[in-house]
Structure formats: C-alpha cells, structure tokens
Amino acid sequence: MAQKKLGFGLLVSGIALAAVGCGGGGSPAAGFTTAASLQSAMAHPTGTVSAETAVGVAAAFQDGSTTPLPAGIRSKTQAQSGSEPCTEGGSITYNVNENMIQMAFNNCGEGGCVENGTYNMLINSATETDVSACFSMDFSAVCAGEGTGDVQFSGCLEVNANTGVSEFMYLIEYEGDTFTVSGNYSAGSGTLTITGENGSFTCTYAADAGSCSGSDGSSFEFTASSGSETVDG
Q1: Looking at beta carbons, which pairs linking 83-92 to residues 24 or more positions away fall under 8 Å?
Q2: Tens of pLDDT along 16-49?
Q3: End-to-end Cα spacing for the chain
Q4: Exposed, middle or buried by CB within 10 Å (0-12, 13-18, 19+), for 207?
Q5: Euclidean distance between CA atoms 133 and 123, whole angstroms
Q6: For the chain, what are the domain ranges?
Q7: Residue 53 to residues 62, 141, 177, Cα–Cα distance (Å)
C-alpha cells in the first residue's frame, strides 16, 4: 500500500538538508549508509512497471517527495557528535563525518509531533559548482490532530551550479518492491519517469488515469483503479 503522507507543517528550507533520511526499518527503499549502495539499488529496482503499479507508485512518490523534515535539524549538526534535548521532550543524537550526517530522533517532541527515526545524509561528492548527495529515510511520527505517519524512501540529488540544472531521483517502495522515480506528480496529475526491472517508462497522469510509454517501445494505459493493461509492441 502507499505510505501515508506526514502533514507536519515543519518544513526546513535549504538544499543541503532538504532531504535527510534514516535507516533500520526493514524497508528495501531505506536503511542505506553509503551513497554507492543506494545508487546501486536505484540502478537495479525490483518492481515491474505496469497498469497495476503505476498509480500506487505515483502515490508513494508523492508521499516521499512532499514530506518535510522534522524541526530542529539545522541547529543540531554543528558538532561532530553528541545529543541535544528536543523542545517538547525526548532527544536527538547525531554523528557527523565527511561522508555522512546521521541523526537519530528518540521520542523527540517538536511542533506538536513526537518523532522517531534515523536520518542518513550521504555525501557522494561536492565542489564549488557541483553537489552530489543522497539520503535514506525511515521515519515515523505522531502529530497532534494529524495522527500517525510513516515514511520509508531514499533518493539522490545532483546539482550543477554553472548550468542551474538539478535532478532529484527517488527510490520508492510499493508493495514490497522498489522503483526508481523522478518527475512531478501531485493530486493525481503530472508526469513521472518510473524505472523497474522491466525498463524505464514515462507516465502521464490526469485524475490518476493515463498512459505509460517504455524506452523499449511498449506502452500501456491505466485508470485510477488500476484497470486493464494494453501493450503495443
């Protein structure tokens, strides 16, 4: 099933910490501690892109790509390692080295939410003009008036300051399988590039219905209820 979106209202701005992840939840799309291992998983997704998965993968992508970070991350990463109390109880422990920022939220109370999870930001490379960084996120929270939410996903960000081009690709779990996804999708509409073990497909959505065209020339249509698939050679 698609993961529930966390409606925190705790968005932290800034590209360097715009997507920090966690590990340890058992999801095949989370728990990575090196950029190389994550990039390998993104290059070898396990799911099959089809009419039956196109809508669910898009919903999981929206959950991940629109999930804001919990409060307090910027102020907790000044030292190499340590622990800080959260404003509403609990604590954050953190460890920083040249390759990874790792943070563990331990019943951390911030902004009306109690947060648990470990965030790994994985630095692949960084120069004055280019940044290549990945993240792996396995996070849960209970927020007053909003209920409980869980997020498990990973991704990589490539930024070229000279050209102004940036690309964000996500590793998404749907029904136990992984898919590599990029693009834009919201409220049932948008365009995504979804890669599975059966290849890469460009999918266009309108009211959660649409079609996908594969890099191998195949195509299929889908409906909001994951209708029948038609394939052209």
Answers
A1: 86/110, 86/115, 88/112, 88/114, 89/114, 90/114, 90/115
A2: 233 333 333 478 999 898 888 998 999 999 999 9
A3: 30
A4: exposed
A5: 5
A6: 18-222
A7: 14, 27, 10
Contact 201, 58 (CB under 8 A): no
Structure tokens at 103: 């943070």
Residue 91 or 140, more confident: 91
pTM here is 0.75
pLDDT band at 125 (very low <50, low <70, confident <90, very high): low
Instruction: Mention every residue, 6+ apart, whose C-beta is less than 8 A from residue 43.
Output: 180
Each as own residue / partner, the long-range contacts of residues 161-164 (CB below 8 Å, 24 or more positions apart, any chain) are 161/128, 161/129, 161/130, 161/131, 162/129, 162/130
Count of Cβ atoms closer than 10 Å to residue 181 Cβ: 30
Sign of CA dihedral 117, 123, 127, 132: negative
Buried/exposed 131-149: b ≥16 CB within 10 Å, e otherwise:
bbbbbbbbbbbebeebeeb
